[in-house]
Write a structure and sequence with these properties.
Strands 1-2-3 form a 3-stranded antiparallel β-sheet, with helices on one face. The protein contains 3 helices and 3 strands. The protein is 36% helix and 30% strand. It has a single domain, classed as Hypothetical protein (Metal Transport, Frataxin, Chain A, 2-Layer Sandwich), CATH 3.30.920. By secondary structure, the chain is of the alpha+beta class. 15% of the residues are buried. The longest helix is centred in the last third of the chain and has 11 residues.
Length: 73
């Protein structure tokens, strides 16, 4: 795993929204985002923490198929 920097949830959500993800709900301290590709719906839950844990950030990067550099730039 690459060295992941500390990133706040607001920056992560902004990058995901630029990639076409839509916020569909909020429950407590978590945001739920969806993205439709063809017939599939991809789902991500982003905790509203500053900073987001590095293991959680790694999971978000894998699910969203956004490059590491693009997400944290």
């Amino acid at each position: 795993m690459k060295h992941l920097p500390s990133v706040g949830y607001d920056r992560i959500v902004a990058k995901l929204r630029m990639d076409g993800w839509i916020i569909v709900g909020r429950k407590g301290n978590q945001l739920r985002l969806h993205k439709r590709k063809n017939t599939e719906i991809f789902k991500i839950t982003v905790p509203t923490h500053r900073p987001v844990k590095k293991t959680t950030l790694d999971h978000i990067i894998r699910i969203s198929n956004i490059s590491f550099e693009n997400l944290v730039e």
